[in-house]
UniProtKB/TrEMBL annotation:
SUPFAM superfamilies in UniProt: Glutathione synthetase ATP-binding domain-like (SSF56059), PreATP-grasp domain (SSF52440), Rudiment single hybrid motif (SSF51246)
Gene for this chain: purD
Catalytic reactions of this protein: 5-phospho-beta-D-ribosylamine + glycine + ATP = N(1)-(5-phospho-beta-D-ribosyl)glycinamide + ADP + phosphate + H(+)
Native species: Streptacidiphilus fuscans
Key words of the record: ATP-binding, Ligase, Nucleotide-binding, Purine biosynthesis
GO MF entries: ATP binding; metal ion binding; phosphoribosylamine-glycine ligase activity
Superkingdom, natural source: Bacteria
HAMAP family: GARS (MF_00138)
Name the record gives this protein: Phosphoribosylamine--glycine ligase
GO BP terms, alphabetized: 'de novo' IMP biosynthetic process; purine nucleobase biosynthetic process
Transmembrane segments: none
Cofactor: Mg(2+); Mn(2+)
Length: 418
């Protein structure tokens, strides 16, 4: 099968890598891709936000299947534009992607489907904001209603900071604070059948010990040795299936990847947010462990045949990914610096490898340059988390990028409790 992947981050590199390992995939293309993706797929300089250009490329290539990675093209209806040309797509319609595109819409769906989540108010005026903040008390949670690339949420004890964030947004969702560890659970769905993947945990703050500002994610690991073995089953029954059923009932069936961001609170599991695509960097560890060839699974979802799909198979052991970020990330990331040690960081047996996020090839066609805040996602497998994280950090140590930084505590607590 000839497959086209849309996007150009480490998530798309992980998707391309897994697809390239699937014997069913005979030809792999990606737009726009990055320097790492170019090693496993043919890359095309097409604007991922331009539905028409993406659909034209798919037709021109004779692509038989398109996988859309990031949220922004999905919310902009890029999957619809490709589907209109009769090509199967993994990724929801623009309407169904509102589950991620609008926090207020997601809250409405959850209320209708009886899905456990934080109590919340949708506010548009300063008076409503003040009332809602007062009703819940500190810590305050203020969310921009629209897509904000992970920067729309402020959690703070400072009332003024909460009010200032709300004042900078058109419409906000203000909600009760949820305590307890967070879990990311992905599910592949065709709009009716839901197939959950294995849970992962990511690290959002920039510094060790969860210090500093929020980022797109600084690392992840899977599985979660501390989690209740019944967690996936419970979330399937109380969150994933009811949400998919509710969206179908509304006439906007959701097919693609449903990502539930969960808090395991003292009062039970609560949904923090939904995303309409694979999460980054959790995808890097979840796909590292997935033994079932990826293309067949995604294609079954895109064509409505998940009910007949065989049970997923998983590799034993654990996976850890550590994000290497550029100097100044997240506030003002620096780009254009050469990256060294990429080949040395990979092991011959494939237990450690480097996924590219923000990279590009220099004019010489060889030197890899940084091109963004999150630059690399160094991923490793092991018999357990302790071994996987040791391998990941060995690899990180071999990479040179001036001024770069990474967290040194990814999966440390979970490994200590193994
Ligand atoms: P979101 O974009 O909704 O995932 O929010 C980003 C991050 O903000 C989450 O991963 C949580 O760490 C935090 N967060 C969001 N909502 C809440 C909440 N109700 N209570 C506590 N933390 C939250």
């Amino acid at each position: 099968m000839k497959v086209l992947v849309i996007g150009g981050g480490a998530r798309e590199h992980a998707l391309c890598r897994a697809l390239s390992l699937d014997p069913e995939v005979t030809s792999l293309h990606c737009a726009p891709g990055n320097a790492g993706i170019a090693q496993v797929a043919q890359v095309h300089a097409v604007d991922q936000m331009d539905g028409r250009a993406v659909a034209d490329l798919a037709v021109e290539l004779g692509a038989e299947f398109v996988v859309v990675g990031p949220e922004a093209p999905l919310v902009a209806g890029v999957a619809d534009a490709v589907r209109e040309r009769g090509i199967p797509v993994f990724g929801p319609s623009g309407e169904a992607a509102q589950l991620e595109g609008s926090k207020a819409f997601a809250k409405d769906v959850m209320a209708a489907a009886n899905v456990p989540t934080a109590r919340s108010y949708v506010c548009t005026t300063a008076e409503e904001v003040a009332e809602a903040l007062d009703a819940f008390g500190a810590p305050y949670v203020v969310k921009d209603d629209g897509l904000a690339a992970g920067k729309g949420v402020v959690v703070t004890d400072d009332l003024q900071v909460a009010k200032d964030h709300a004042a900078g947004c058109d419409r906000v969702v203000i909600e009760e604070f949820l305590d307890g560890p967070e879990v990311s659970l992905f599910a592949v769905t065709d709009g009716t059948t839901v197939v959950p993947l294995q849970p992962a945990q990511d690290f959002k703050r920039v510094g060790d010990g969860d210090a500093g500002p929020n980022t797109g994610g600084m690392g992840a690991y899977s599985p979660l040795p501390w989690a209740d073995p019944k967690l996936v089953e419970e979330v399937q029954e109380t969150v994933l299936q009811p949400t998919v059923d509710e969206l179908r009932r509304r006439g906007t069936p959701f097919s693609g990847l449903l990502y539930a961001g969960l808090a395991i609170t003292s009062r039970g599991v609560r949904v923090i947010e939904f995303n309409a695509r694979f999460g980054d960097p959790e995808t890097q560890v979840v796909l590292a462990r997935l033994k079932t060839p990826l293309c067949g699974l995604l294609y079954a979802a895109a064509t409505g045949h998940l009910a007949d799909f065989p049970e997923l198979r998983w590799r034993d052991g654990a996976a850890v990914t550590v994000v290497v970020a550029s100097e100044g990330y997240p506030a003002s990331p620096r780009s254009g610096d050469p990256i060294g040690g990429l080949a040395e960081a990979e092991t011959e047996d494939g237990t450690a490898y480097v996924l590219h996020a923000g990279t590009r090839l220099a004019e010489d066609g060889e030197t890899v340059l940084s091109a963004g805040g999150r630059v690399l996602s160094v991923t490793a497998m092991g018999k357990d988390l302790t071994e996987a994280r040791a391998r990941a950090y060995d690899s990180v140590a071999k990479i040179t990028l001036q001024g770069s930084h990474h967290r040194s505590d990814i999966a440390a607590k979970a490994a200590a409790g193994e």
